[in-house]
Specification:
This protein is an alpha+beta fold. Helix 3 packs antiparallel against helix 4.
Length: about 250
């Protein structure tokens, strides 16, 4: 085959390839047009849905989801519950200690108040006891006063009591109380000082002979008390009449 024939054959072959490509392009265009027409008419298959755009990434996890812990902070995160428990324990101990201290203080304070009230009541009873007598009951009077006394005052009254007995019998003297006021001054659970104000009514043979009414006096005495075997006893009672008798 000559060179001219070979060149002519190549030209024919290229022309055929070009024609084939044009034919394929035409077919593709026709298919695309039909697809568009079908989508518009709605009688065929619906147009393919558009792919949803991906949502942007976010740093926040869903609410309620466990938060990841960075490996580098694992040790610190593990210590948090231990520290919290330790702090809670310390606070609990402090709270319990405060309650115990407060309870003890309140209990002690309550005990002191009870002691003060008991001492004051005992002082009032003693003031009424020592200010009430008559010739018929003088012996019983002396015994009761002695039983409610203690210390040096007990010894002092034992001596003065006999002189008082003689005066009461000879003068037919009587005494009673029309008022009694007592107030705690100082002290603790074992000893106390109580102010005693006695409203006393007295009479004797001379007053009766003169047809005079019984005399009324008010005596102010500081009673000292001590607690002996759970009972408040008087160890000091500066009653003026007894001082006069002692002199």
């Amino acid at each position: 085959m000559s060179t001219d024939e070979v060149g002519a054959e190549k030209q024919d072959s290229g022309a055929e390839e070009a024609e084939a490509k044009k034919a394929d392009a035409a077919v593709d265009a026709s298919a695309a047009d039909k697809a568009v027409e079908i989508g518009k008419s709605g009688d065929g298959v619906a147009a393919a849905p558009q792919a949803a755009a991906p949502e942007p990434a976010t740093d926040k996890l869903a609410e309620g989801a466990p938060q990841p812990v960075a490996p580098s902070g694992a040790k610190s995160g593990a210590l948090v519950p231990i520290i919290a428990a330790f702090v809670a324990g310390v606070l609990l101990v402090a709270a319990v200690t405060a309650v115990v201290v407060f309870y003890r203080q309140a209990s002690n304070r309550g005990g002191e108040l009870d002691a003060h009230a008991a001492a004051t009541a005992a002082a009032c009873e003693y003031g009424k006891l020592i200010s009430t007598y008559d010739p018929q009951t003088i012996d019983d009077y002396l015994k009761k006063v002695d039983a409610a006394s203690t210390g040096d005052w007990k010894d002092q009254f034992a001596k003065l009591g006999q002189d008082l007995k003689g005066v009461v019998i000879d003068a037919k003297a009587t005494s009673s109380t029309y008022d009694m006021q007592c107030g705690f001054q100082s002290g603790d659970t074992e000893s106390a000082n109580v102010l005693v104000v006695i409203g006393q009514t007295t009479t004797n043979v001379n007053i009766a002979a003169a047809n005079k009414p019984p005399s009324k006096v008010e005596l102010v005495v500081v009673a000292g008390l001590k607690k002996v075997d759970d009972k408040w006893l008087v160890d000091k009672f500066d009653l003026p009449i007894l001082k006069q008798m002692g002199n």
